Amino acid sequence: MGEKRCLKEHLRENLIVGDGAMATYLYQQGVPVGLCYEELCLTRPDLILEVHRAYFEAGARLLETNTYGANRERLTRYGLEGKVTRINRAAVRLAREAAGNEAFVAGAIGSVLAGRVPRYDRDEYRDMYEEQATALLHAGADAILLETFLDLEELLLAVEVIRPLTEVPLIAQLALLEVGRTRDGYPLTEAFRRLQEAGVDGVGLNCRLGPAECLRSLEQAAVPEDVYLSAFPNAGRLGITDGEYRYKSSPEYFRESALRLREQGVRLIGGCCGTTPQHIRAMAEALRGLSPLPRINPEGASLERDSVPLAVQPPRKEPAITEKVEAERTVIVEYDPPRDLDIARFLHGATRLKEAGADVITLADNSMATARMSNMALGAILKSRGIEPLVHVTCRDRNLIGQQSHLMGLWALGIDQVLVVTGDPTRIGDLPGSSSVYDVSSFDLIRMVKQLNEGISFSGKPLKQRARFVVGAAFNPHVHNLEAAVRRLEKKVEAGADFVMTQPVYDPETIGRIHEATRHVGIPVFIGIMPLTGFRNALFLHNEVPGIKIAPEVMERMRRCRGKEESRREGVAIARELVDAALEHFRGIYLITPFFHWRMTAELTRHIRERDRRHAVVGE
């Protein structure tokens, strides 16, 4: 190329072959997973330079800096937050040494969100984009390449920050989870249009999808006339072969794919995860001597966000608990699924609780991290018998794929009332070697369940139907700082919680404090009460179970009991007193059945109903 021209000018008349993967190629060369690959610009510059040279010699004439994750948030995980500028400048220097005047150097900036739940502080992200881009630009990058952004909104935020900093070309690449649509629900046509309006010079795709799906996405999209098109596909889908992670697509396949991408008007063509210098050489050989082709948009491609008509669901036959509690006393009774395959006892107890006056039977989700029968299955059985279920959904046991699948299954079964909880860590349960997933917090999961109510999947894909989940949140009043606990509850309400269920309370004073502290939250509160079964049970709950405190006078009453029957009677008597105190403040009561002793909570349920009937008669 001789004396290097402006990248934007060069793309007017020429195809440019980009480089391939950095991280996956380094892994293939023996660099272990778990290292900060961006730090290698400082600790192993010879290795990074060797990769750049391999791609240059293969025919790449645009080299990306090894800075995909060289932002403050990512580097903080490795204790390298103070080296953002040093790493980015060193990366440009290494790429420039390999490129000389024969290739362009693009400063690579990856998504900070990087596939996590899309909730972030926009101001913090602005600062991180500005910090990284400033370092790359001061070091002399010929262009800024924004890559692997799943969400258009985050990519637009990055463009908003970086575009005023420079006049060098700014190329914005999205990573799609499915053909033709961003994770946050934008069709590719609209995404490209909005990026062009934000001031980018090039738009394109990279990562996640292989050549075939990139081509399908581009074939369906309209691209604005005055932006260049880029594509850096993965080497197919990631799979496991002989116990190793590998990408399937061969260099020969990429040779053919490069020609098809050219036919779509793509002018900057490279590779992403799984690609190697051999893939880039095959593409460079296929494109050698060819000129770019004009982009021809498909007929009928809409420039606006498309909408999917949502099916109208029939109204609920019975009022949801949030509607019911606004009008009358409402009792939720928790009855845990069994730890065995026999469900006869469980179903008998649930039926008796319903007969006693329980409005809803709530089913924990492997409480105390102990394996129990699926609350989805039992909820469906209860539903078929005319008993309204409310199932708990923990953040612990399922990744986001499993969470969405589980919720969709609940909806299909007609179970639309859920309580979202964090879940006890697996190390305290009966399978301590199992993994605690915790892909998201309870705040995030509440928000994502309500997203299904908008007809949008967790990935941002429009659904053909809206769910109508009524979502509960847990509240733990047994903390040193009740105000902090209330602030946490307020965040759950902001996330979309429709009602609150508290941890069990064992003294009237705490009930009164909860009422005063939560009366402003604007959603129903169900106060938790669990009868004690004995003095040892009280000691255990007070001293060993997080989130539960028992008043000294209650402990003393249980200590004086002799025998199981007397202990249970006293436990119910104490709970009855607490119920009476709670009824002065709350319409919603949440009774928790201890150790499958459904008779205890059934007795309390009958007490609530009889008390309300007596008061109704007096009122008349």
From TrEMBL:
All copies of domain Hcy-binding, residue ranges: 4-287
A Pfam family assignment: MTHFR
Domain of life: Bacteria
Keywords: FAD, Flavoprotein, Metal-binding, Methyltransferase, Oxidoreductase, Transferase, Zinc
Chaperone found in the keyword field: no
Residues where Zn(2+) binds: 207, 272-273
InterPro entries: FAD-linked_oxidoreductase-like, HCY_dom, HCY_dom_sf, Mehydrof_redctse-like
GO molecular function per UniProt: metal ion binding; methylenetetrahydrofolate reductase [NAD(P)H] activity; methyltransferase activity
SUPFAM superfamilies with a match to the protein in the record: FAD-linked oxidoreductase, Homocysteine S-methyltransferase
Cofactor(s) of this protein: FAD; Zn(2+)
Protein name: Homocysteine S-methyltransferase
